[in-house]
């Protein structure tokens, strides 16, 4: 209660499913995010709450945000997470540009390790469904922690309005636009690991280019669309590098490997994307996946067909003046 100043209005940061999120400050230092949920709302609330706690409380990886605690009291549920808005990856990438190359490559590798843990190393497979640069918190050593599940969606939805939530009741589509794979946009389903691989690939490209997944100031709007056009142009991969990076500090082989990986992860056809296990190996310098699978380009016609839902969504937002 004291951490959030008794849930004062000035500490409220957003409305979330079934309740409200508040920013809190601990007496010993540090920040937290407290989700205050009304327990009497509906049975679905109790189910979602218990599922989230059961899964998050058991996950253990150095690059995953940890659940700090929870309680039920006076007809309410309170869930407490680690949180630091000034240390969000998106905040540092798109506002400060203060990430050196070795920090960026470490973030790329560490996130891959965390998602690989969720997909293949925990006792049951966990599909994250909301991997974005605003769901990643960096510690003082620039080591990333990926927010989990509802927290990830909260962070992405409330990072200064930079992200657009897609909610299509006709298709039951829900997600963060720009990070959703074509099959997720088409069917509303993100139940396969390949959808997480795609989202991870978008974040990887953001880290390399310093550009957000969706930017209406770009002719292409979508970063993956820009990448598709870039690939067709046959320009050198180095041209994609964030201009704020000192060219002398970039490890050229790491950068080229990462660009090729970003292309592979964001292929429109999910069967042509690598698994997270393969991604971890690639980032460790084992490039045999590229030798075996190649990087056959997608034609413009095929790309537009597979990404028709995303391109249509861009046109609708432009028509509505949503930028």
Features:
323 residues; alpha+beta; Phosphorylase Kinase, domain 1; Transferase(Phosphotransferase), domain 1; 2 domains; five-stranded antiparallel sheet; 12 helices; 42% helix; 15% strand; globular
Give the topology, please:
Layout: E1 12-16, E2 19-25, E3 31-38, H1 43-58, E4 67-73, E5 76-82, H2 89-96, H3 101-121, E6 136-138, E7 144-146, H4 149-158, E8 165-168, E9 173-176, H5 182-187, H6 193-209, H7 223-233, H8 252-265, H9 276-283, H10 288-293, H11 300-306, H12 308-320
Antiparallel strand pairs: 1-2, 2-3, 3-5, 4-5, 6-7, 8-9
Helix pairs in contact: 3-6, 3-9, 6-8
CATH superfamily of the largest domain: Transferase(Phosphotransferase) domain 1
Give the helix proportion (percent range).
40-55%
- The average pLDDT is 82
CATH topology group of the largest domain: Transferase(Phosphotransferase), domain 1
* Total strands: 9
Radius of gyration: 20 Å
Please indicate the percent range of residues in DSSP E strands (runs of 2 or more). Answer: 5-15%
Q: Please state the second-level CATH architecture of the largest domain.
A: Orthogonal Bundle
Largest beta sheet: what is the strand line-up? 1-2-3-5-4
SSE topology string: EEEHEEHHEEHEEHHHHHHHH
So how many helices? 12
Shape: globular
Q: What is the highest CATH level, the class of the largest domain?
A: Mainly Alpha
Largest beta-sheet details: 5 strands, antiparallel
Structural class comes to: alpha+beta
Distance between the termini: 37 Å
Stretches with pLDDT under 50, minimum 5 residues: 150-162
Protein name: Protein kinase domain-containing protein
Domain Protein kinase: 7-290
InterPro entries: Kinase-like_dom_sf, L-type_Lectin-RKs, Prot_kinase_dom, Ser-Thr/Tyr_kinase_cat_dom
GO biological process, one term: response to other organism
């Amino acid at each position: 209660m004291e951490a959030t100043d008794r849930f004062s209005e000035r500490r409220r940061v957003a409305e979330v499913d079934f309740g409200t999120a508040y920013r809190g400050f601990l007496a010993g230092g540090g920040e937290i995010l407290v989700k205050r949920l009304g327990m009497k709302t509906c049975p679905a609330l109790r189910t979602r709450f218990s599922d989230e706690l059961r899964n998050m409380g058991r996950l253990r990886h150095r690059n995953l945000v940890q659940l700090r605690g929870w309680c039920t009291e006076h007809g309410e549920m309170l869930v407490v997470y680690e949180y630091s808005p000034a240390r969000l990856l998106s905040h540092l990438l798109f506002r400060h540009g203060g990430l050196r190359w070795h920090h960026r490559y470490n973030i790329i590798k560490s996130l891959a390790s965390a998602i690989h843990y969720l997909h293949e190393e925990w006792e049951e497979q966990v599909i994250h469904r909301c991997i974005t640069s605003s769901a990643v918190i960096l510690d003082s050593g620039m080591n990333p922690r990926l927010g989990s599940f509802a927290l990830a969606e909260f962070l992405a939805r409330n990072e200064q309005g930079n992200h657009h939530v897609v909610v299509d009741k006709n298709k039951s589509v829900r997600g963060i636009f720009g990070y959703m794979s074509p099959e997720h946009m088409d069917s509303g389903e993100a139940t396969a690991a390949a959808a997480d691989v795609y989202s991870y690939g978008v974040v990887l490209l953001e880290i390399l280019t310093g550009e957000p997944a969706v930017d209406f100031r770009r002719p292409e709007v979508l970063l993956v669309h820009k990448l598709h056009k870039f690939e067709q142009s046959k320009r050198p991969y180095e041209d994609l590098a964030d201009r704020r990076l000192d060219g002398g500090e970039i490890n050229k082989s790491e950068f080229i490997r990462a660009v090729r990986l970003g292309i592979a992860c964001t292929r429109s056809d999910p069967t042509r994307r690598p698994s997270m296990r393969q991604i971890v190996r690639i980032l460790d310098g084992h490039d045999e996946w590229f030798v075996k699978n190649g990087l056959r380009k997608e034609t413009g016609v095929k790309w537009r067909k597979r990404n028709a839902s995303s391109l249509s969504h861009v046109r609708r937002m432009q028509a509505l003046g949503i930028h």
